[in-house]
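Morning run. Coffee first, then this:
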Amino acid sequence: MIGIVDYNMGNLASVINAFTKVGANARLESDPSKLCDYDKLILPGVGAFGDAMEHLQSNGMDEAVKAFANSGKPLLGICLGMQLLFESSQEFAKDSNGTQGLGLIPGKVIAFDESKFDHPNKVPHMGWNELFVQSDTALFDGLDKDFYLYFVHSFHAECDDKYAIGKTHYGYQFVSAVQNNNIYGIQPHPEKSHENGLKIIENFTKL
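And here it is:
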């Protein structure tokens, strides 16, 4: 059984539908005490980093997600859910240390630096773009070394290349997919990315 963390951050219907399309049994879970009953876990999210962390912390869901990650079972963060896996984010941060994240992957989340763009682009980064695979990972089995997915975000991860399994170019190259052992994260929305996205979701069900 695959659990989808329900913490009031985004419409989760499309995530559930995507798992249904690949023949997987997934359900929403809002009870932190039940997370470790699942075989695999999805941490979705749409919105602001700080708000998301407050929602997770309000009932202990943050510690439950950490406990699941430490169990060794597969965990996948999607979009904001991927960003929450990191140590901190600059989004609406009150000081230079940023807003604390789950700390499951070393690194931080930063705003797109438009001063570094190699050609004019609008932020947020919205629409179809290529993900360039950086290392072998079961999450991308059966996909080309570069493929298109659907993005919507204004902040991106910054981490050591050893955690980067995918990168994307938008003004400059940034990390768009990560892995730290059993912990995975992907910035684009696989549930909105047609065949390529469904393949990633199917691959996750097989981990």
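The mean pLDDT is 96. Good start to the day.
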